[in-house]
Design goal:
single chain; alpha/beta; Rossmann fold; 8-stranded mixed beta sheet; two-stranded antiparallel sheet
């Protein structure tokens, strides 16, 4: 494995992600990594990258996790996937290759936000030896857009204009959250300017993704899955979240916030993840929280 030197200096605090690059399938892959302990793989949402989530991921590091946050193909400077065979399966194969490249040789706790949730589901389904636990955060993959009485419409029927109507306001919902907005734009603007085609292709995958069959298979395999959703999220409507929960056989957990709630309130994200991480750590033979720290108030 070849990993480039981090692009930050030696004064890096241990809990902050350090940025590296490696090679996956012969192409450049950028990623952040930090911490020690339970291996956690974080897969970012559409239009973003590995940097926008640094505050939320720091909280997981403080709970005793070693966090790997790759910029998926076409985002954050990672090379795009080939057009031949393009789909969620090729993203999942790339992520499995990334884990090989960085030397992770045990099942990870995979966390996916939005589009990253769909990739995480596909990874767990196609490469079951790679994923021990799965957390889906406002995830793509539920098949239903509208479910009102006898009126049921699939997510694939949702027109593009409806996505774009809700996406900007749901992504940047909080006045005064300047730090959150700056962190997101640090990823989103370069992605838009440097590789708009990758955004379009991934967006089309997200819009049409129906992972009901894959989720049902994970249920049969008894893969531990937790589903989280913000009660003001209009990018992923409640009907889609409920369809996802029905497939995994769980009620999921509804938290205050919009589609980007984990970026707006990283402490809430850390708290809601605590029990699931403790269960994964116990299955790994570790103590519940080896560092004994809470993330509250961390910058």
């Amino acid at each position: 494995m070849h990993v480039a030197e981090p692009d930050r200096g030696g004064d890096e605090v241990a809990e902050h992600l350090v940025w590296h690059s490696t090679s996956v399938e012969g192409r450049r892959a950028n990623f952040g990594v930090a911490g020690e302990g339970l291996p956690v793989l974080f897969l970012h949402g559409w239009a973003l990258g590995h940097r926008a989530y640094k505050r939320a991921l720091k909280r997981l590091v403080l709970q005793g996790c070693r966090v790997y946050a790759p910029a998926m193909p076409g985002f954050g400077g990672s090379a795009d996937l080939p057009r031949a065979g393009f789909g969620l399966g090729s993203y999942a194969r790339w992520v499995a290759g990334f884990l090989d490249a960085v030397g992770v040789d045990e099942p990870v706790f995979a966390v996916g936000h939005s589009f990253g949730g769909a990739v995480a589901v596909q990874l767990a389904h196609d490469h079951p030896d790679r994923v021990g636990h799965l957390a889906l955060v406002s995830s793509v993959g539920g098949a239903t857009w509208v479910n009102a009485g006898s009126k049921v419409r699939s997510m694939a029927e949702r027109p593009l204009w409806d996505w774009w109507l809700h996406f900007p306001g749901d992504l940047f919902p909080i006045r005064g959250a300047l730090g959150m907005v700056q962190a997101m734009l640090e990823d989103a603007l370069p992605n838009l300017l440097c590789n708009p085609l990758a955004l379009w292709r991934a967006g089309q995958l997200a819009r049409q993704a129906d992972l009901t069959s894959e989720l049902l298979d994970l249920k049969v395999r008894r893969t531990p899955v937790v589903a989280l959703w913000g009660d003001k999220d209009t990018v992923i409507p409640r009907a889609s979240f409920e369809a996802l929960c029905a497939a995994i056989g769980s009620t999921g957990e509804v938290v205050p916030g919009s589609h980007s709630w984990l970026l707006a309130d990283p402490d809430a994200f850390a708290e809601v993840m605590r029990d699931s991480l403790s269960a994964a750590r116990a299955a790994r033979g570790e103590e519940a929280d080896p560092r004994g720290q809470r993330a509250d108030g961390a910058p």
